[in-house]
Design goal:
It contains nine helices and ten strands. It has 206 residues and is of the alpha/beta class. Helix 3 packs across helix 9.
């Protein structure tokens, strides 16, 4: 079954979503009108990855961002609002992102499998917010992901209370840090020479 596109205001009006929920508040701030609804579950940004991306963009000042599993396009919209000039947003079901990002110049929405997407170029920063069932597959391809970024990457590892296995998969790896923010487990990767700048951003999450 394919997810369907619904309006955030409809979700609030039908009491499927509280207007004070993180998804509703983030959507309002970023002017995200449409989200994907699948089998009663609403796909949208969580506060941990949203704040972490905001801080990383502030510190690293990327000129380009690759947004994998972009969903509604909220994280792409955040990057756009902070002045990133080139953004590619990838999702198997891009309908909501296409609607939310259609007026954002420099943003390209791609419909396709984010796990196998081959951009043919590198980006300054990658953000990946996969469905929980695909996180382990994404981590298995971490080497390929590293080849695609110049500065760093931010990956959602799932709700913190259920992310122990995913965190363990990254233990002992160089230039990787896992952390918890607003109930989200996150992984941050970086290239040599950027450790101190990454640390300065992550301190604001602690």
């Amino acid at each position: 079954m394919k997810p369907r596109v619904v309006e955030v205001d409809w979700l609030i009006g039908t009491r499927r979503l509280s207007e004070f929920s993180p998804l509703a508040l983030i959507s309002k701030k970023l002017k995200i009108r449409w989200v994907m609804l699948w089998e009663g579950y609403t796909y949208g940004p969580t506060p941990g990855i949203t704040e972490a991306l905001d801080l990383l963009i502030t510190v690293l000042k990327p000129k380009s961002v690759l947004d994998l599993f972009c969903g509604s396009g909220a994280l792409s919209k955040l990057a756009y609002s902070k002045g990133v000039k080139k953004i590619v947003s990838v999702d198997l079901y891009p309908d909501a992102a296409l609607r939310n990002l259609r007026r954002c110049r420099g943003v390209k929405v791609v419909g396709g499998d984010a796990l196998s997407y081959q951009p043919g170029e590198r980006f300054d920063l990658i953000v990946a917010d996969p469905p929980e069932e695909l996180i382990e597959k994404l981590l298995e391809n971490l080497g390929r992901l590293r080849e695609l970024f110049r500065l760093g990457a931010l990956i959602w590892l799932g709700p913190y209370q259920r992310a122990e296995r995913n965190i363990m998969l990254l233990r002992g790896r160089r230039m990787v840090r896992t952390l918890e923010a607003w109930g989200d487990a996150l992984a941050v990767l970086w290239k040599p020479g950027l450790g101190s700048r990454i640390a300065s951003a992550l301190r604001l999450l602690e």
